[in-house]
Amino acid sequence: MGNLAQKLQEEQQFQQQQQPVQKPKKVSERKSLLSPGEKILGIAFAGAVFLASSQIVSNQASIYEMNAEIQKTEAGIQNQQQVNADLGIQVEELSRYDRIRKEAERQGLVPNENTKVVND
């Protein structure tokens, strides 16, 4: 039986020698989806978008501030117009002929023949 075991061993060695030697698989390197130039262009584009968007936000903020200032100014103008209208009414009341005549008499002035009434 020793001879039989030796034959089996030789056959196994012979089969192993005849089997093609498997080459180790190459480890494939992951290739980047973007080339370095494309990466630089992408970063530049992202930077440009960021700068443009920040400029837009800045402009909108300044427009908002300007609108608020305009509204405050318009409110001040309306208040002043109301004050002017009230003062105009007061001027009309104080410049009535009856009132002026009474005030003149109170201060000792008397109308004479040469006094004339002038209306606007």
TrEMBL record:
Keyword set includes Cell division: yes
Mode of membrane association: Single-pass type II membrane protein
Pfam families: DivIC
Span list, region Disordered: 1-30
A Gene Ontology BP annotation from the UniProt entry: cell division
Sequence ranges of Low complexity compositional bias: 11-22
Keywords linked to the UniProt accession: Cell cycle, Cell division, Cell membrane, Membrane, Transmembrane, Transmembrane helix
Compartments in which it is found: Cell membrane
This protein's record includes keyword Cell membrane: yes
UniProt record similarity statement: Belongs to the FtsL family.
Protein function: Essential cell division protein.
NCBIfam families from the UniProt entry: ftsL_broad (TIGR02209)
Protein name from the UniProt record: Cell division protein FtsL
Gene responsible for this protein: ftsL
